[in-house]
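Task: sequence design from structure.
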């Protein structure tokens, strides 16, 4: 499958990363340096956060007796799919609850169609609200990073059913590994529309640099602490 970069402009002028360029990619990126950084950072993060993950996993298990960790197919590099790991923040019958809300509430349907999120999501457990707001639910993706499915920084990994929303811009998304964090997570998260999210992903692909990745990581910390745009 051949994914190539286009020449379209993103229309987003802020936070363009031009301080330093990697060597070896269409943007001058040294992919070996990025991959090495991913492995080291994810391994250290997993080692440091293991006690927290264990405590949260036990709490999730105790709330309803169901498994704490789950995986979902997501689009990855070169259009291949992988199993994205997360701590469970929803009730076991989440799909049925979502469909019932979308069928009965036109306003919820409009919000879902626009952002793929719900402000008052009946699927999310009380503990789930906390771990989603703090992004603890996404920490198992450190294993995805070590495995090579993801990167520390990149586009948000999207479920298979969201591919049509990217249209022709899907080629940009698939040209890099999806990330644990990225421009979307530091630009309002769920406060953005889906179209804005796609533009942010495209912008990242066309302007990415090593120091740009570091800047995104640093911006992620206050965004998570303040739960900016979390749903």
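Answer:
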């Amino acid at each position: 499958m051949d994914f190539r970069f286009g020449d379209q402009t993103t229309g987003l002028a802020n936070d363009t990363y031009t301080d330093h360029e990697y060597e070896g990619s269409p943007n001058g990126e040294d992919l070996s340096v990025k991959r090495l950084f991913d492995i080291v950072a994810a391994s250290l993060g997993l080692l440091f956060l293991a006690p927290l993950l264990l405590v949260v996993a036990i709490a999730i298990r105790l709330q309803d007796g169901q498994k704490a960790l789950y995986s979902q197919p997501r689009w990855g590099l070169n259009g291949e799919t992988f199993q994205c790991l997360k701590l469970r923040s929803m009730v076991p019958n989440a799909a049925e609850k979502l469909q019932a809300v979308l069928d009965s509430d036109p306003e919820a349907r409009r919000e879902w169609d626009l952002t793929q999120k719900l402000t008052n999501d009946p699927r999310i457990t009380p503990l789930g609200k906390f771990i989603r707001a703090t992004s603890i639910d996404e920490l198992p993706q450190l294993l995805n990073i070590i495995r090579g499915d993801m990167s520390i920084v990149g586009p948000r990994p999207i479920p298979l059913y969201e591919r049509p929303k990217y249209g022709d811009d899907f080629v940009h998304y698939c040209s890099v590994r999806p990330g644990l964090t990225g421009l979307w997570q530091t630009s309002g998260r769920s406060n953005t529309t889906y179209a804005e999210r796609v533009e942010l992903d495209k912008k990242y692909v066309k302007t990415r640099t090593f120091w740009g990745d570091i800047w995104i990581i640093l911006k992620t910390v206050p965004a998570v602490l303040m739960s900016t745009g979390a749903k």
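The CA atoms of residues 143 and 199 lie 27 Å apart.
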